[in-house]
Fold each of these.
Amino acid sequence: MGLYAVLFVSLLSLLLGFVHNTTSTSSCRCFPGDLCWPTPEDWDAFNSTLGGKLVATIPIASVCHYDNFEAYDEEACAALRDIWFFPETHIVWPSSIMAPFFTNNSCNPFLPANVSCTLGNYVSYSVNASDAEDYQKTMHFTRRHNIRLVVKNTGHDYNGKSTGAGAVSIWTHNMKDIEMQTYSSSYYNGKAVKMGAGVEVHELYEFADAHDVIAVGGNCPSVGVVGGYTQGGGHGPLASKFGLGSDQVLEWEVVTAAGNILTASPNEHADLYWALCGGGGGTYAAVVSLTAKVHPALTVSAANMSFPNTGDNADQFWEVVGTFHASLPDMVDAGVSVIWLTTPDGFTLMPATAPDLTKAEIDDLMAPTLDKLEEYEIQYTYFSDEFPTYLDSYHAVNTPWNVSDHQLGGRFIPRTLIDDNNESFLATVRNMVDGGALFSGVAFNVTDAVPSPDTVAAHPLWRESIMHAVVGTGYSYTDEQINIEEQLTITNELLPQLEALTPGGGAYLNEGDWRQPNFKEVFYGSHYDSLNAIKARYDPEDRFYALTGVGSDRWAQREDGRLCRV
Ligand SMILES: Cc1cc2nc3c(=O)[nH]c(=O)nc-3n(C[C@H](O)[C@H](O)[C@H](O)COP(=O)(O)OP(=O)(O)OC[C@H]3O[C@@H](n4cnc5c(N)ncnc54)[C@H](O)[C@@H]3O)c2cc1C
Ligand SMILES: *[C@@H]1O[C@H](CO)[C@@H](O)[C@H](O)[C@H]1NC(C)=O
Ligand SMILES: *[C@@H]1O[C@H](CO)[C@@H](O)[C@H](O)[C@H]1NC(C)=O
Ligand SMILES: *[C@@H]1O[C@H](CO)[C@@H](O)[C@H](O)[C@H]1NC(C)=O
Ligand SMILES: *[C@@H]1O[C@H](CO)[C@@H](O)[C@H](O)[C@H]1NC(C)=O
Ligand SMILES: *[C@@H]1O[C@H](CO)[C@@H](O)[C@H](O)[C@H]1NC(C)=O
Ligand SMILES: *[C@@H]1O[C@H](CO)[C@@H](O)[C@H](O)[C@H]1NC(C)=O
Ligand SMILES: *[C@@H]1O[C@H](CO)[C@@H](O)[C@H](O)[C@H]1NC(C)=O
Ligand SMILES: *[C@@H]1O[C@H](CO)[C@@H](O)[C@H](O)[C@H]1NC(C)=O
């Protein structure tokens, strides 16, 4: 090729690149490699304004691969493999997330070392945030350069909402401030806890215990209270007694997409306050802190139980499970919250938490199930006790939670289904589990925790439900094809069985199928349109995007990860 030809081709590609770039700024987020992508000098300047808190992504498993990051270290990789399933491993790594599907298997310790380690779906940069100003600077920079914005707290989100290719993430994990307050307002007078965006469930429980109060959080100790949990609704061991996480909120301190610091409460920016109380994480604004009600300390009883399905006793096994299901209305009405797992191998109650009840009372509520086990002479373990504090109970019976190596889908189960048609519910669970799926349930009564189902944005069907049912299938760290098939099994085979029992029903947006058809109705119910209008008010440019979040249907992620308007 002659010199002119080379020049011509270069010019042409420059022009094409420019055209492409223009298109991408109007309809797509700017992506690494685009002309619009900030220069190294831009990133350095951004880092300086942040006082050095900008972290360029190195995938957590780069030590397990030869190429790209020059980090290969066989010993470090083996050590990482050993701790991979502990949430803490990923929580402290700025870009790491736990929902395996959304890591796209682009770099993990179970793949051979000679497979490429790439960023895949991981963010490009994280801002190790410590205050509202760090949020504001990140908002301004990402907006000016049209870069995708993500908020990551712990990275627990099952739908991959805390990651995104080509994104800059506000990483909130290190914002651990927590304090007691005596809150006074027209809507609440009493004790409250104000906590920073990075506070985890166990930290809140420990802090509350040290101050002789009880705070509401989830089952898993390392879920972030202020992030996806409370913003998504939030169930837990105290739900039947005190309601959902979203029902405890007094005020939010946020930074909006435009970079303004606001307080959202029932009296100020009440629409935003409402949306953040259960309308989904990473969608309306970036939360700096949450102030939540706390409750006077109580004694707490708790019970756990397990019994096997050996195959030989299958009919009797399922009858016991049916008896357990039928006992749930009495349990939740007595203030008990219940979490359990039914697998092809057996049943595990993990646990039932009974605030303000005695051991004798929880034993009574468990008696129908225990009597059936005795009657059928099925071997089982049962443990119950009364504890002086909620924290003691939590420490004694909460099961350790690993990173989920499953994919999942979910469905709310209305109280009426268990009251009127427990047989068909049982038959459906049995059919799914016999087919190899995992079934996990959480049972609660949160009907009277709020004056009306519309008091907060959390799906109104929480208030009519006795249970959130979750179904799980397997995940492979080495074979993407299996993962796609297993996830389709959830969408096309498992959830339709629960949907058939619950027409017009819903699901918990934090523990649902990311491919859920009609996600607007299923995850948000009658609140969707109001939530969408509130998002338009506070985030008119859709700076916040989260898969299955409100407004997310206006965007699609392309094969290479680029986020574009549809
Ligand atoms: C093992 C395990 C156990 C669980 N147990 C429970 C349970 O008992 N009860 C329950 O209700 N749920 C439970 N969940 C679901 C959990 O509530 C969700 O995964 C939730 O999204 C986690 O929130 P996070 O902030 O910790 O995680 P992240 O993945 O970091 O964030 C989740 C979402 O919230 C957004 N977000 C985070 N921080 C902020 C912020 N400061 N401002 C704005 N947006 C933010 C993120 O952008 C993302 O969209 C569990 C999940 C797992 C994996
Ligand atoms: C930001 O600055 C800090 C401190 O100077 C440095 O350690 C870090 O590597 C920088 N980040 C990036 C992405 O350059
Ligand atoms: C939990 O994770 C740890 C660390 O990866 C692992 O050793 C352990 O086997 C896991 N436990 C279960 C029940 O999966
Ligand atoms: C990696 O190594 C294995 C065996 O050592 C080989 O079979 C495979 O082809 C290699 N893969 C790549 C991507 O080089
Ligand atoms: C995820 O993996 C698929 C299959 O390997 C690939 O085609 C796709 O580009 C990847 N996505 C990202 C964002 O890396
Ligand atoms: C993030 O900032 C905290 C201080 O807030 C610091 O202790 C920690 O080392 C930083 N982490 C990374 C990965 O930069
Ligand atoms: C389940 O429902 C059936 C039919 O409505 C009823 O006869 C039975 O008593 C219920 N089971 C239990 C354990 O309550
Ligand atoms: C129940 O809790 C007790 C007390 O902590 C514990 O020893 C036991 O292993 C637990 N059993 C189950 C089935 O979780
Ligand atoms: C919750 O309890 C109240 C009062 O006991 C009852 O009226 C309501 O039906 C229960 N709701 C659910 C969903 O179990």
Amino acid sequence: MRKKTQLIHGGITGDEKTGAVSVPIYQVSTYAQDGVGKHRGYEYSRTGNPTRFALEELIKELEGGHRGFAFGSGMAAITAILMTFKQGDHIIFTDDVYGGTYRLVSQVITRFGLEASFVDTSDVSNIEKALTDRTKAVYVETPTNPLLKITDLKKVSELAKGKNLTFIVDNTFSTPYWQNPIELGADVVLHSATKYLGGHSDVVAGLVVVNSQELAEDVHFVLNSSGGILGPQDSWLLMRGIKTLGIRMEEIESNTKAFVEFLQDLPEITNIYYPGLEAHKGHDIHQSQARGNGGMISFDVGSGEKADQVLRNVNYFTLAESLGAVESLISVPAMMTHASIPVDRRQELGITDGLVRVSIGLEDIDDLKEDFLQALRK
Ligand SMILES: *Cc1c(COP(=O)(O)O)cnc(C)c1O
């Protein structure tokens, strides 16, 4: 089954009993048992729910893994994955991971004695240098936010296999439509499904796919013990969103490519970060491991004041955090998502005051171009 078909026909579809073509929303907490200890696959909805299960089967198939799990948010998913480790274990992370992941790891998880290093994983030798005899996992994001840095998934997976490390990939930016880390050797793939998978800025959710029975048992044990599950309504909403992931990602791809070409012709714009550009660092690696470049672009408009002017004057780009929605979104990382990083460190990372990040949506590309231009030249 090809990806676009899999989005519609994958996982569990419809309802056998009634012929309903959409999976029913099982708004239920508990299930009648036929006898003590005798149930029909479901006992209690924290442990398992049929609507959630349909979604979990779907993401499992889309990522080509062994088992899927649905959580109440991307952060709940990441928390559960980290809780499969124990005190004293050491994990190496991509240094510009999602801000919420950095906060969770540096301020919450470390309270329980888990140790973490943050390194630039776009150079695999940095991972090797950070290894200790207690390192148990490598956690990578590619492309990253907001500079779209690329990490070579195959190379990291070879390193991880050699050292017996669990290789975890946050695949939120590429989605399973464009990139499948398990095929490249990852053990765990996770998503903030709040972004492209949901796609309509109307649901907060997290998804996990693991590649082995052992990991599946461990993650389900943590999920059932800690309880950060996704409810049936949101599970249904997410499946509805995923059905159109293919056409959304294709359209976003062509809109984004056109928007980048438009930016390249504007003298005010410098430093365009987009993995589709040949000059982008890691371009070749990204092309070898992903089938598309996604809808994220970062670029410099010259100054913080100019960035502020653009943001105040655009009409079709919504000023908001988040990404991956039908509507185009715009943000200034230095003032928003990365404001808590000290100025010196931000400069070092290339997150200048004039850096603008956009998540291209499904509007008519000519409207997006015209709108951006009037805001830039006001
Ligand atoms: C948004 C995001 C998260 C966190 O997900 P939530 O659904 O907001 O909890 C994690 N990783 C990446 C890359 C994200 O963009």
Amino acid sequence: MAKFNIEKTKESRISEVDWNNLRFGVYFSDHIFISDFVDGKWDGGRIEPYRALPMEPGLCTLHYGQTIFEGLKAFKSVKGGANIFRPDMNAKRLNNSAKMVCLPEFDTDTLIEGIKELVMLDRQWIPQERGQSLYIRPVMFGSSNFLGVTASPTTRLIVMTSPVASYYAEGLKPIKILVSTEYVRAVKGGVGMAKTAANYAASLKAGMEAHSKGFSQVLWLDGVNRKDIDEVGAMNIMFVIDGELITPSLDKGSILAGITRVTVLNLAKEMGMKVTERNISIDEVIDAHNKGILNEVFGTGTAAVISPVGMLSYLNKEYVINNMEIGPVAQKFYDTITAIQYGEVEDTRKWNVKIDF
Ligand SMILES: *Cc1c(COP(=O)(O)O)cnc(C)c1O
């Protein structure tokens, strides 16, 4: 480690943190990792204090949205030090997203080393409580100033971190979901498979409207037939129908390859569950509900890990799932994944990158 130039902050802001009310993405820790792509190559990367960066009004990304990001977490391990969960997967996905919006790829090992160095330096910012974590946010964007519609010749990568609360204050609470028949998040051939700002901008209005009607998230259907299920909010979605775990397959081209998604699929196969990645329509889900074989529905994502769905509203009808209670399958995945992340069980699959301190 320590092959990066490090400029330490002169004054830590850690005393500003209200550890009992962290919420999500409100506090930013003292340092960032930063690297620039200029003249066709990335510089070596450096660590600097978190601070405002100069920006011109002509910054191309402000106008055309050539920007991608990642989200992963570091957890205080019960064995001492910290665990970063599957950062290799995030590094690879960042490069997949980069290709889709004409940004240059970044060396995955360098990114992981940069993240480790950053977390080590700001280790005081890793929250102590079970459920809390240090959220790690890499963001990469075109950094040139011009208004021509073309890929930016220069790019910047920044990794920032933020202490975040447990998603669940009191246990896993099932959420109510509105199946959107009006709005679409992404279509095949678009950028739905990239973790890029455009998808988020496109989802805000539907999300706000769902919120105002008392729903937590939107369930997205495909943009062509408005029948096949894509994702839920910014999470992947899974169904347990008659004991079988079913989730939309990635080759539909409009959903994100979630790391929690693949983690759950790995574990389900290990547990001997029947696991199927395929197209699944809202009609099939409603049909299963009517037959009484829709056992569970849940979202998967880094923020919540597992988010049980207790009710689906589709065409003004409400479908209650598992009595608005968390089901045994969702609970099992939540417990297993979090136990690995906090170092409470043996990490036999080598998913954690350990930081010793
Ligand atoms: C980030 C994200 C997910 C979840 O991915 P994880 O790697 O599991 O956090 C799912 N869908 C969308 C649209 C996302 O942006």
Amino acid sequence: MTRSNLSFIREDLLNLSAYIPTPISENSQQLTRLDANESPYNLPSELKAKLALIYEQEIETNRYPDGSHVKLKTLITDYINESSLTAFKINNISVGNGSDELIRSILIATCLNNQGSILVANPTFSMYGILAQSLGIVTHTINRNEDDFTWDLDTANKLITEEKNTPIKVIFVVHPNSPTANCLTAKEIQWLKDLPQDILVVIDEAYYEFSQQTLVSGLPQHPNWLILRTFSKAFRLAAHRVGYAVAHEDIIKVLEKIRLPYNLPTFSQLASEFALQHRDLILPAVKDVMEEKERVYQALVNNPLLKVWRSDANFIYLRLAQNPSNENHDRIMAQLKQKDVIIRHTGGGLRISIGTTSENDRLLNNISCD
Ligand SMILES: *Cc1c(COP(=O)(O)O)cnc(C)c1O
């Protein structure tokens, strides 16, 4: 095939570097996959069998999915109302094909056509910047404080007041942050409360079930806040791609307007409904993961060659204590990979998801830092 000159493609996309997930090969069952912060546990087999039966008996494959998501939204409101003083309703919820889809909808709704830019603090979840770039939206990045990965609020405030060309319309915070695993501090939460109302504050709580910390109760007083959650982590449904947003109904209305009409496949809706209905059998494993995290943390923190940060989530972030260069971190990753252990090198450090006890042992027995 002759090479196209691709002159019909937007030039800014030719240089975009995408998010590259670890490829899943045929022998992936043998790999210890500690790179994507998923739950290490499949659904309990009795639940999976029931779900398969639902597929067999209830799904009409020739029909489009329910594009209103009413049942799923109703179950989500029940779930969030358990931990909130406010009674959220289904018009406070929008569901997406993973929270990634919702992030893109938020960007389209706020900043497209040079209407605004976004602000993030690195290191953080890379999808905000990647999706913004794919839409031609400018991302302002500031660096987190190196000691505890809190926001540099003075620099953030300065950028917010000084950016006049494409004003900052959205700030993305993660609670707890990925890859650094720290929750927002009281000071940062106060800052979010004091931000001008014409900025949308997106609080990504992908790891809520692990951290048990949420700002959902602050939504009624702060109509410029939006909370993102996902079924990809504690609910063990990463395969099904389901995320949701909780916010003021006026924001939700817009997100609903711009999403694709059938964004969520029928089986993904059923699986996430089913997971919510059986959460008493799914979520208790969070406790096991968090106990394992403490064990792995204690083992790693005792290694003088490593600098390891405390974690409010199901993963641990670390750097080499001396010479934390990309090459040295790559070398640790490559050595682990030779032993079939996959971790993630990101944000100038290594992020290690917590696996099962034997997977964690495999990591601890094989990580070598010299
Ligand atoms: C894993 C993760 C998500 C989840 O994304 P999905 O598209 O729902 O799988 C969202 N935000 C952060 C910060 C994450 O780490």
